[in-house]
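quick one, 176 residues, struct below
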Amino acid sequence: MPSERFIEQLVGQIGHELAAHNQYVACAVHYDAETLPRLAAFFYAQALEERNHAMMIVRYLLDNDVRPRFPALPEPRVDFDDIVEPIALALDQERTVTDQFVALARTAREDGDFQGEQFLGWFLREQTEEVASMSDLLAIARRAADSPLLVEEHLAREGADRGEDPTAPAVAGGAV
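---
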C-alpha cells in the first residue's frame, strides 16, 4: 500500500494534470478562434493526454485500494497576445509537471514504495518527450511569430501522431 504522503502527492498530481488539461483546452480554443486549426488540434490533443495522465493516476490509486479525490482546479489563462504566448506557457507548465513527477518519484523512493517508483518511470520518460516537443514548437513559433501559417505548415508537415504507447499505465475508464 502506498504511504499516506505519496497518496496525498498523487491526489495533488491528479489536480495538476486536470488543470493542465483545462489550460490546454484554453490554448486550443485561442488558436481555434484565430483560425489556426493545426495549432488548435495540437493543443486539443495535448489536453486529452493530460486528462489521460490524471486517469492513469486514478487507476493506480484504485488498483491500490485507495479512493481518489479530486482537488479544486484553478481557472486557466484564456487571453493571449500572440501565437507564441500559449506555447511558452505550455512549456513552463511541462517543466513544472516534470518537477512534480520528480518529487513524486523521490517520495516513493524515500518511502520504500518500489511499485510507486516503477509506476512513475513512465511519466518521467513522457515528461522528457513533452518538454522536448514543446521546446521545439516554441522555437519554431518564435521564428515564425509574424507568419503563423508557417507554424501551421510545420505541424502539418511534421505531424504529432505518436500513436498509442503499449508501455503506458492503464487509464481509468479508458483512454480518449
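Helices lie at 4-33, 37-63, 84-110, 114-143, 148-158.
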